[in-house]
């Protein structure tokens, strides 16, 4: 019983932490200018982040690929509209945090 209680407490702590991280990451995306061209569930200039998550679901190399793409910019995956290079004005660590969040949507 005690172990079960501990497990529940641990699980809910993790859940709260995960939610806090998601809120941080979306604030970071806002601050970094990503949300000028992206939204979570609607196409703006760039693809909806939920569509990005769906496209790369199960692709273990997606995180590294997308971090590189966001840093350097590029076009042709979702259409002719290019994404400008977001590095160095957005820090590498922040890009990684935002990409991890996108892939978790
Ligand atoms: C000026 C508009 C603009 C800004 C700002 C922007 N993006 Fe994009 N983004 C795009 C466009 C357009 C595409 C589609 C590119 C393509 O088709 O290859 C895209 C694609 C993407 C993709 C999918 C790439 C792929 O190859 O599938 C990710 C992930 C992404 N953006 C994340 C970000 C992040 C994170 C930021 C902020 C650091 C950001 N974007 C800022 C326009 C933008």
Describe this structure in words.
With about 100 residues, the chain is mainly α. It has one domain (about 25-105): Cytochrome Bc1 Complex, Chain D, domain 2. The chain is about 55% helix and about 0% strand. The chain has four helices and no strands. Helix 3 (about 60-70) crosses helix 4 (about 90-105). The longest helix is centred in the first third of the chain and has 30 residues, at about 1-30. The model has no long low-confidence stretch (mean pLDDT about 90). Bound molecules: heme C. The site of heme C (HEC) has 29 residues, from helix 3 and helix 4.
Total domain units: 1
Task: Give the termini separation.
Answer: 34 Å
Tally of DSSP helical segments: 4
CATH superfamily: Cytochrome c-like domain
- Low-confidence spans: none
H and E string = HHHH
Give the overall pLDDT as a whole number: 92
Q: Work out the strand percent.
A: under 5%
How would the global form be characterised?
Answer: elongated
CATH architect. name? Orthogonal Bundle
- The whole-angstrom Rg is 16 Å
Main sheet record: none
